[in-house]
Amino acid sequence: MINELIKFIPTNLQSRSGKVFYSGKAAFSEYAPLYVLGVNPGGTPEEHANETVQSHTEMVLQSLPADWSAYRDESWKGNLPGKSGMQPRILHLFNVLGVSAGVVPASNLVFARSSRESTIVGDMFQMANECWRFHEKVLELLRPKVIVCLGGTAGDYVCAKVGATTQIEQFVEKNKRKWTSRLFSDASGTFVAVLSHPSIANWCAEASDPTGLVVRALQDTA
Question: Which domains, ranges and CATH numbers included, belong to the chain?
Answer without folding.
Answer: 2-221 (3.40.470)
